[in-house]
Amino acid sequence: xxxxxxxxxxxxxxxxxxxxxxxxxxxxxxxxxxxxxxxxxxxxxxxxxxxxxxxxxxxxxxxxxxxxxxxxxxxxxxxxxxxxxxxxxxxxxxxxxxxxxxxxxxxxxxxxxxxxxxxxxxxxxxxxxxxxxxxxxxxxxxxxxxxxxxxxxxxxxxxxxxxxxxxxxxxxxxxxxxxxxxxxxxxxxxxxxxxxxxxxxxxxxxxxxxxxxxxxxxxxxxxxxxxxxxxxxxxxxxxxxxxxxxxxxxxxxxxxxxxxxxxxxxxxxxxxxxxxxxxxxxxxxxxxxxxxxxxxxxxxxxxxxxxxxxxxxxxxxxxxxxxxxxxxxxxxxxxxxxxxxxxxxxxxxxxxxxxxxxxxxxxxxxxxxxxxxxxxxxxxxxxxxxxxxxxxxxxxxxxxxxxxxxxxxx
Length: 410
Prior knowledge:
It is a single chain. This protein is of the alpha/beta class. The chain folds into two domains: about 1-80 and about 155-360, P-loop containing nucleotide triphosphate hydrolases (Rossmann fold); about 90-145, no CATH class. It has helices spanning about 45-50, 75-80, 95-105, 110-125, 140-150, 170-185, 195-200, 220-225, 230-270, 275-315, 370-375, 400-410; strands at about 1-10, 20-30, 35, 60-65, 65-70, 80-85, 155-160, 190, 205-210, 215-220. The strands form two sheets. It has a six-stranded mixed β-sheet with strand order 6-7-8-3-9-10, sandwiched between helices. Strands 2-1-4-5 form a four-stranded antiparallel β-sheet. β9 (about 205-210) and β10 form a beta hairpin. α3 (about 95-105) runs parallel beside α5 (about 140-150) and α9 (about 230-270) crosses α10 (about 275-315). The longest helix has about 40 residues, at about 230-270.
């Protein structure tokens, strides 16, 4: 049974030129330790923050123990414990107060929380410091109290983002051993790490992400049997993906520079040369951002259409939509017109069995009307002219003369 299901996850930050998560698909099963690998800025933390509900995502579905994180966030969040990379804790509370506060949030009964807290303190060797304020703790001790807080309600899914950073060898050993114990009890563990040796020895499976895309899924049990090296596989995959990513970014930069020159020439008369150059760069940057956003929404449309097609046919996910089945207009309605080939679709080879392989291109944009096809723009009938109504002028009041005033006095 899958504890965590992520399907077709897209995340695009506002005003971003690059996509943080693009069609990410993964499944974590019960009793499994699952590794999440990637270089800095690959999209690991963004994906984990989407899974935990810390940040909203652009499209896709995330289910934790059968509960959708968008539709039923309360029950979804009750079933996981999260240890962030920055050990976000309340420094002015003691360790015991902090864990007790989290136990209250998760509504853990008093007898169970006491028993569980004592067990975890003994496991991570922190019992001597639980009555001290957290601000007096070292980096490793803060990480340990954060782990205890995440496990106090015994979640089915334990999520850790870079858990080994800053820990001493003894603490690393304690965390790894308890991860094994926790998975053996039928729970699931998902953690991101840069330590390939730890992932290779500890995990059952691992997913490699690069530039927001899944570029490979590795069965580490099979690797250990065959004596293969995870490090060699990781370096090969990421180097190839980095090369293609750099080529794509270079093309975008060239396109942005050309647009900036065009906009600058148009604006020189209006603003003058120095200000026109600045405004041209800004406008070109916004145009590239808009283009990437439109391409993402076009890909989301294709992905959603594929899911609809496969559900109707009754086949497994992964059937690629044909041009005839793809959404008409590629980007209709609010998405605008004129979509080209999605960048990077043909460049990146995905070896992830859970991910849907997208190779379709959007069809040409909005259809032209018969009058537009002939070259004539549709003409509107002129509105009937309103008759001008002139207001009648009131006669001006006569000023009193000297004779009238004299009569009045008499």
